[in-house]
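Example record

The entry below shows one chain as it appears in the dataset: sequence first, then structure tokens.
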Amino acid sequence: MIDYKKCNNCKICISVCPMGVYSEEKGKVVVKKPNACIGCRSCEVQCPPGAIKIEEK
């Protein structure tokens, strides 16, 4: 889940996600493939403003 109040659109999540879960649409980071998430938390750990929280399935 992305907290858009905290997200600064740095796009680090796009580059670190090994499954391509995130994408950019109209200049904004979006969760494009939520079901592809393997829960590795790379995006959560690398997110500078702490805008990403991985929810357990």
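Notes for this example: The chain has one domain: 1-57. The chain has two helices and two strands.
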